[in-house]
Amino acid sequence: MEYPFIEIEKKWQKIWDDKKIFAAQDQSDKEKKYILSMFPYPSGDLHMGHISNYSIGDALARFYLQSGYNVLQPMGYDSFGMPAENFAIQHNSHPKITTEENIAKMKKQLTAMGFGFDWSREVSTCRPDYYKWGQWLFKRMYEKGLIYKKKSFVNWCPSCATVLANEQVEDGKCWRCESVVVKKELEQWFAKITDYAEELLDTSDLVDWPEKVKLMQKNWIGRSTGVTINFLFEDQKLPVFTTRPDTIFGVTFMAIAPEHPLTQKFLQEEGENSKLYQFCQKVMSQDNSQRTAEDKDKEGIFTGRYCVNPVSGEKVEIWVTNYVLMNYGTGAVMAVPAHDTRDFLFAKKYNIGIKVVVQNDDKNLDAQTMSEAFTDDGTMINSAQFDGLGNQDCLEKIADWIASENFGEKSVNYKLRDWGLSRQRYWGNPIPVVYCQKCGTQLVPDEQLPVLLPDDIQIGKTKQNPLLSATKWLKTTCPKCGGEARRETDTMDTFVDSSWYFARYCDAHNQDAPFDKEKAGYWLPVDQYIGGIEHAVLHLLYARFFHKFMRDIGLTNCNEPFSRLLTQGMVCMQTFRCPKDGYIFPQDAIVEGKTATCALCGSPVTIGNIEKMSKSKKNVVNPNDYLQRFGADTLRTFVLFASPPEKDVDWNDKAVGGAFRFLNRIYKIFVKNKDFLTKEYSCDGEISTQYEELRYSSHYAVKKAVGYIREKLQFNTAIAAVMEHLNNLYSAKSPATSAEKAIYKEAHTIIPKIIYPFAPHLCEEIWQMIGGANLLHESGLPTYDEKYLVKNDITLVIQVMGKIRAQLETSKNAPKEEIIAKAKEIDNVQKFLAGKTIVKEIVVPNKLINFVIK
Ligand code: ANZ
Ligand code: ZN
Fold first, then answer.
1. Distance CA 550, CA 503 (A)
2. Any bridge partners for residue 477, and if so which?
3. How far is the CA of 476 from the centre of ligand 2 (A)?
């Protein structure tokens, strides 16, 4: 018989909902806990990644509810964005309609999983009551000089027909569709995240973030300290950024980017038929990662022009090269082939001079014969007054000297670029700006917010932004002169929407502000944030930036939005590949031992790796199927039991069945002992050893489970502890005395209390079955007593051939072999055993040992 999970789960979901047990109180005497899982993009179907993410979040939220906290666990939808627009185009519908449909579908599934969200705070980023405040924040940023518009070369994905942020380009490809990204010069809106670079580097308030994520952010921000040195071209300054001022006397050429203003000037002088022009065109069509890759050919062209090294007074050739990027430093590099690998390769290729200025202390370098750049430390040579010093010492010395001589100044550079947040797509938050012929760029006044996204548009007809053809919407009036004006048609990157949603949850229906300061002050920061590692540098960096900005305009008062972060592992599964059919679904692979055949064509199939579930590899399972077969509690218990939350989960049907059987066994023993469990028992009477063991088992399970959840978020260990305890419970004999009955009952009641965060429906059901007062979260965490975790000592009688010879004090749980060995060592026992052979030991547990000898 299977336990009736369908009825049980429906029943308790309704009770929780009716009693509003997940409604968080904005004011409370209890301590607060804000548990947040990253909100989903509403695709319409929950996938296993969501199930795992939200099972972790809900287990924690329920655990803290049980522990007596005022818990906030909200949910919403990241509902603007290109996928929604594309989905609507495919389904010949409108994103507004399809998005709301998908949200309804997903909410149903989230509810069916029994996740305890405070739905009264639901936010959906595509609804005007939310995006109004995104526009409002955009304006505040603009007023603070943190938003600006500039013409620049941007990453353009031809297939998505939009601009991408640097963070959204991976290996030169679009993070979403993997098309090769090209450069396009466009007027773009930017947010000055670089103003916060220094603060974002400080991770001291990120109490419990994975080191890996902190490091990824640090590398992404990429702080370099060095010197900006002003080379001279005619009477203009040509600044370069270098981290190696100690090599200033070794400069043999100047390398500048094709996009550099000086290059642009040369191009104007030489015209479109020049070699320089052709070279620049070619390089500019390559993406940055291609241009800088170590293994890519260094290419360049001599401009025929020279500049002057301000320090040495030497004349150096100016080259335009592919490996210098415009968007780092100053877009110009003082090239030192002797000590920089890229410069060395370039100089060798184009026969440019090499000058050693840092001598290798182990083996003298010769500029003529050296086969690679010397990038280690050594002694300064050919460097005027610095000769003979260690080059490390000279980093600081030369920097100081350069500054004092006015050749340049010390400077700091970041890899981090300002965040380009214009998107040329329809389904996003309109940028609250209008353009007036007379007054130029004007912000839409606060009273007119939100700028509503028009509904009556034609999408999917052309690749251009549909807003460009929304003629009625486009035409507006200038807030300053009242004359005719045109609306901005760019919409905001959806990462803007997700950069502050965690704060909106604190006060989701506020009509006068993004959220109330006091409410946000109470709830923020998020105590535990849970989501995928893929957001390590995108969302998590943007959100930290926004949060700090909101703090600076007085909306929040803490420094960081998320004090703890858990990046959950991925749900993985075996892949199968058929030579004819490509990847095939696991159910189409007939596995026998270590080989498999394709059920579709009979070919031998390659059993692949266990990999992240993905549609393209066909190794996906649909949570709905499992929900119907086993119920939500099994699904939740399985994903949490399979591995610690930050590790990958290997999906495996057998193990899911195992989780189901475990829950069934719990249910069965409660049904069987229901009548017994509703009565009360006193502590009178004897307690047998077996019952002492059972009591130990209960208290041990509680200690272990609660400890592991609270300190390490290791739900798997907690579940394993209960599995072990359940076995002990099943093997206990019927209780004889009242005291034993009390122990037997306790051994049952701790189970729903421990398992509640994982399988809440089943636990409420059995709790109610045995007359538990209240709902489980109100009944508190299970408790244990250290006293019962100390194993009692016992006294054994030691006999030799049936005659008492000694007594032995020992722990009753000590292994048999150990006890026998100790007994043999007792003097009065040894005496009788000496010179004899032990035939056997007769052991009466906890009572005696009798040695039979010959
Ligand atoms: C001279 C030099 C000599 C350099 C030497 C290195 C070694 P990080 O550490 O990443 O900040 N550089 C500066 N701007 C650049 C740009 N726009 N594109 C490509 N390369 C650029 O790197 C700083 C170093 O990268 C700078 O120090 C500069 O080369 C180069 F033996 O200057 B160095
Ligand atoms: Zn105007």
1. 10
2. 484
3. 11
Cα distance between the two ends of the chain:
57
CA 376/CA 358 separation, integer angstroms: 9
Substitution candidate for ligand 1 out of 225, 244, 247, 290 with most atoms within 8 A of CB? 244
Return the closest-CA partner of residue 538 out of 491, 498, 490: 498
- Relative to the alpha carbon of 291, which ligand is closest? 1
Residues 690, 742 contacting (CB under 8 angstroms): no
Other Cβ atoms less than 10 A from the Cβ of 549: the count is 23
Phi/psi of residue 813, each to 5°? -95, 5
- For ligand 1, what atom is nearest to the CA of residue 413? 11
Residue length, the chain?
854
The closest ligand to the CA of 322 turns out to be 1
* CA max distance for the chain: 118
- Write the DSSP string, 116-158: ---GGG-EETTSHHHHHHHHHHHHHHHHTT-EEEEEEEEEEET
Identify the bridge partners of residue 191 per DSSP, sorted by sequence position.
Answer: 147, 419
**Mean pLDDT taken over the chain:** 92
Could you tell me the distance, in angstroms and rounded to a whole number, from the CA of residue 434 to the centre of ligand 2?
A: 9
- pLDDT tens figures, 142-161: 999 999 999 877 788 888 88
Ligand nearest to the CA of 437: 2
How many Å lie between the centroid of ligand 1 and the Cα of residue 391?
17
* pLDDT of 289 strictly over 70: no
Cα–ligand 1 centroid distance for 240 (angstroms): 9
Model confidence at 16: pLDDT above 90: yes
Is residue 445 reached through a cis peptide bond, with omega within 30 degrees of 0 on the bond before it?
Answer: no
Pocket of ligand 1 (CB under 6 A): 224, 241-244, 247, 324-325, 328-329, 331, 333-334, 336, 339-340, 413
- Closest ligand 1 atom to residue 375 Cα is 31
Chain centroid offset of residue 475 CA: 42
Taking the CB of residue 236, how many other CB atoms lie within 10 A of it? Answer: 13
- Write out the two tokens for 383: 């460097």
Q: Nearest residue CA, atom 33 of ligand 1?
A: 242
Rounded to whole angstroms, the Cα distance separating 310 from 333 reads: 14
Closest CA to 247 of 44, 131, 386: 386
The pTM of the full predicted model, rounded to 2 decimals, is 0.85
The answer to whether residues 63 and 111 touch, using CB atoms and an 8 Å cutoff, is no
